[in-house]
Design brief:
It is built from six helices and seven strands; from the N terminus they run βαβαβαβαβαββα. The protein is α/β, with parallel strands linked by helices and about 200 residues long. It has one domain: 3-Layer(aba) Sandwich (Rossmann fold), CATH 3.40.50. The chain has a seven-stranded mixed sheet with strand order 3-2-1-4-5-6-7, covered by helices on one side. β4, α4 and β5 form a beta-alpha-beta unit. α1 crosses α6 and α5 packs across α6. Bound molecules: 5-O-phosphono-beta-D-ribofuranosylamine. The site of 5-O-phosphono-beta-D-ribofuranosylamine has 14 residues, from α1, β5 and α6.
Length: about 200
C-alpha cells in the first residue's frame, strides 16, 4: 500500500482530484494517510476532515526555529507512515532535511511547462501572466520530483494546453488546472507502479 502525505496551502483541488481517483479505483494500492497545511483555514484541511483523513495545521509560524518546524513535520510524516509526499498547491519551500529524508519521494505539480516559468515567485496568476506576456503558443502542467530549490527537480510528467489568441490569465489558469488534475493522478500511478514493482521484485 502506497501511503500519500499531501501538503497544501489552499483550496485543495488537486488533492480532491486524487481522492476521486482513489475512490474510483484509478489509484489502486494507494491511500492518503495525512494532509498538512500551513494555513489553518485552508480548504484542503476541510476536504480532508470531511473525508475522515487526518488533517493537521503545521506551520513555520508555530515554531521558534526552522529546525523545530522540520522536526515536527518529520515526526508527523513518520507517525502516519508516509511513503510519498505530494505537494498540492503548497506555497512553501520544503525544509532541506525533509528533502534529504524523502529524497526522490516528494512530488510537486506546477502550472507551467518547466523549466520555463518556474522558480520563486512563479505561482498562481503570475505564471499565466508571464506565459501570455511571452506570447507562448502553448503552456501546460508539470509534475516533478522536489529537491532543495523551487520547481527544479527531475520532471516526471508534462502535458500541454494551447494558448489561444486573446487568452486571459484566468482562462489559461482554468485550462491548465483541468490538465493538472488528470496529470497528477497519472504521475502518482506511474510512481506507485515503479515503487511497488521495485519492492515486489
Ligand atoms: C495549482 O495551480 C497548482 O499547480 C499550484 O497551486 C495551485 C492550486 O492548487 N501548485 P490546488 O487547487 O490548491 O490543488
Amino acid at each position: 500500500m502506497l501511503q500519500l502525505a499531501v501538503l497544501g496551502s489552499g483550496r485543495g483541488s488537486n488533492f480532491q482530484a486524487i481522492l476521486h481517483a482513489i475512490d474510483e479505483g484509478r489509484l489502486p494500492s494507494t491511500r492518503v494517510c495525512l494532509v498538512i497545511s500551513n494555513n489553518s483555514d485552508a480548504g484542503i484541511l476541510a476536504l480532508a476532515r470531511s473525508a475522515g483523513i487526518p488533517a493537521l495545521h503545521v506551520s513555520q509560524k508555530q515554531f521558534p526555529t526552522e529546525e523545530a518546524f522540520t522536526d515536527a513535520l518529520l515526526m508527523e510524516l513518520q507517525r502516519h507512515g508516509a511513503g510519498l509526499i505530494v505537494l498540492a498547491g503548497y506555497m512553501k519551500r520544503v525544509p532541506p532535511r525533509v528533502v534529504r529524508q524523502y529524497r526522490g519521494r516528494i512530488l510537486n505539480i506546477h502550472p507551467a511547462l518547466l523549466p520555463k516559468f518556474g522558480g520563486q515567485g512563479m505561482y498562481g496568476h503570475h505564471v499565466h501572466e508571464a506565459v501570455i506576456a511571452a506570447r507562448e503558443r502553448e503552456s501546460g502542467a508539470t509534475v516533478h520530483v522536489v529537491d532543495e530549490e523551487y520547481d527544479r527537480g527531475p520532471i516526471v510528467l508534462q502535458r500541454t494546453v494551447a494558448v489561444a489568441p486573446g487568452e486571459t490569465p484566468q482562462s489559461l489558469a482554468a485550462k491548465v488546472l483541468e490538465v493538472e488534475h488528470a496529470l497528477y493522478v497519472d504521475a502518482i500511478r506511474q510512481y506507485a507502479d515503479r515503487v511497488l514493482q521495485h519492492h515486489q521484485t
